[in-house]
Inverse folding.
């Protein structure tokens, strides 16, 4: 499975996750649960992007640019569910990239790099980015464990358990258990990743993210 295939799966899952907010009549098993697959795949793509980019500066510039472009469509879309004072997932991925860069550039200076990474993760919560601290941590974990597939599964499953724990205990239900399973499923899907780029689509999913939210918002309004 190539990067191109992962992008397609991530985008399709994201649409499934979002369409139910714009068109409530579409709420079903697929839109309620399979949408949980999207973010872990986007987090993985961000981490892989760091590993394979030939120009880190341009990678940062691209993320910042599309984070700014996406913010208004994101806020419009989030207004459908009430809480719109947040930063989009592009900012989440950007903070994850910053955490990876700090860890990578400082090498084995763990006494410096780890506290700084924790600070960046906390910044994700402080700035109210989409998926909060969990999102930033997911990008970082998927990078650090990229060559250790079993460890990646275990740590990612634990991260998801921490994130979903309040809902699994305080609001325990079969629905929340299914959400946890679907959110953890992508890390198993990545076992068949072949390390290849596949068809080149550098900008498609950057454009797709704000475009689909804007389209769904317009559909909801009209």
């Amino acid at each position: 499975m190539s990067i191109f295939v992962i992008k397609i799966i991530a985008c399709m899952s994201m649409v499934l996750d979002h369409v139910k907010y714009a068109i409530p009549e579409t709420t079903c098993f697929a839109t309620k649960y399979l949408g949980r697959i999207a973010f872990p795949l986007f987090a993985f793509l961000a981490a892989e992007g760091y590993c394979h980019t030939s120009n880190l500066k341009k990678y940062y510039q691209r993320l910042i640019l599309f984070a700014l472009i996406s913010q208004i469509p994101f806020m419009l879309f989030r207004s459908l569910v009430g809480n719109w004072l947040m930063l989009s997932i592009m900012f989440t991925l950007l903070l994850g990239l910053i955490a990876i860069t700090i860890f990578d550039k400082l090498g084995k200076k763990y006494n410096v790099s780890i506290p700084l990474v924790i600070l960046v993760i906390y910044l994700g919560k402080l700035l109210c980015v989409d998926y909060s601290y969990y999102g930033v941590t997911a990008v970082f974990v998927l990078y650090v464990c990229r060559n250790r597939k079993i460890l990646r599964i275990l740590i990612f499953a634990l991260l998801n358990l921490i994130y979903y724990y309040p809902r699994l205990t305080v609001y325990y239900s079969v629905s929340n258990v299914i959400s946890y399973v679907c959110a953890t499923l992508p890390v198993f899907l990545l076992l068949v990743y072949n390390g290849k780029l596949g068809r080149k689509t550098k900008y498609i999913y950057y454009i797709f993210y704000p475009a689909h939210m804007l389209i769904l918002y317009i559909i909801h309004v009209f």
